Structure formats: C-alpha cells, structure tokens
Amino acid sequence: MSDTRIALVTGANQGVGFQVAKELVANGVTVYLGARNFKHGEAAAAEIGSGAIALQIEVTDADSIAAAAERIRTEKGRLDLLVNNAGISNTRRTSGPSDGQDGKDFMAEVTKASKASTASLEEMHAVWDTNVFGTLAVYQAMLPLLRDGIDPRIVNVSSSVASLTLNADPSHPYHAGYGPVYPASKTAENAITLAIMNELESTNIKVNLVSPAFTSTNLNAFAGTQSVEDGSREVVRVALLGPDGPTGTFTQWENTPIPW
After folding, report:
1. What are the chain's domains?
2. CA distance 204 to 248
3. Over the stretch 99-113, which tens digit does the pLDDT of each residue have?
4. Cα atoms found within 13 Å of the Cα of residue 13, Cβ hemisphere only
C-alpha cells in the first residue's frame, strides 16, 4: 500500500476548493478533485498538474456520490483525507455579478431577501440540500474508505457566520444578517459535524471544522475581502495536520477557535 496520502476535495474546480486541492498536491498529496461538471473538473486538474485527478461528484445526487466512492475504492482502495468543501449561498446566480452589478450590492440584496420573514423556502431547500444533506451524504459514502485510510481526517469547510454564539450578540457585525438560508445552513452543517465528531471520537478518524473567512469567490459573488490564497490557509493547515494533530476543533486562521 502506498503511503502517499489520498484526498477527496469536493467543489474543487474553483474557489477555495481549487486552491486547497492545489496546495495539497504541492505538499505531495494525491487529490481527487471533485466537481459537479466533469469537464470543469478535468480543466482544473490539468491546471494543477500531476497529482490532481478529476472526479465527477454531485453532492445532492446519491448515485453520483456512490459512483465516486466506488471509483476511489477501485483505484486507490482507501481515503486518508476528506475535505467537504462543496457549498452554495443562494440560487439566484451561478456565476459572478453580471450587468455591471457590484458583488457587494448583489449580496446585500440576497441578505435582505433572506430574512426569516422573506426567505424563499424553495431556495432554502436547495441551499440546505447542498450544504447540510450533501455534507452528510458524502461522509456516509466515504466513511468505509476512511476506515481503511492512513491517519484519516475529515475537514468540513464551514463559516464563522454559522456561530450561534457570535450571532446571538447584538454587537456582532453579522448579527443582523443572520438568516435561515445560508447562515443557518452552515449552523446545521456544524451540528451535523458535531454528530460526526461524537460518532468517531473513539476511532482514529479525526474531524475538524474550518472557516476560510470572507474570501472572494463565486459563493459571495466575489464580494469577499480576502484572496483565495489567504482564505484557504486554515483549511490547508488543518488538512495537513499529522496523526498527532487535534480533532473536534472549529477554527479560522491561524488556529483561532470560533465559538459554536
């Protein structure tokens, strides 16, 4: 059995996922670069080069997840690192701002339309399907491979906007913007992750939550204030932790705890 670490990063053809995959490969990890659209995944893997392998996976599609798990088992026989990165913030736009609209203006409109009294239940279902149920579905499918892994670790990419502690504080800058679509979906993802942590605490599989901060990506219509390189640092740091590294943490750069 090769001792080269085998990783799967979902949502890795762009944004934080792509940067994480790129940096993991640079650190000697073989990365399955998960993408909904296989051609987009192939293009991203080709850009990274040797060590990146395109893998079609749609986290809201059970058949796609099962096929991805079977391919990894057939080709590698195990999984050492799972980075659950795939996520969406809304369903209103699938690419960056268009028609000259500023990303910050667009996200302000999304936030205003996503209050508890105004949120579209249809949009909420779509976002939660990816961010919450998709994370759990991928975990369930990949767990047998992780059980066969070397020093296995799961890193779920969350957000500080998920923190109930922070958002319950009226002085918190994002307090007024906490809504049931994206922010609450990440809170629910944190709850799912806690359930995973509790389930695996007596095993050798370690589990961590990470916030990449407000990174400029398609997720926020490129309104973020940090580059993907800076925003991905904590995800990469945690993903590369060795067997003596911690489990059960929720952090942002650099190793700063985020209250649940």
Report:
1. 6-257 (3.40.50.720)
2. 12
3. 555 666 776 787 888
4. 15
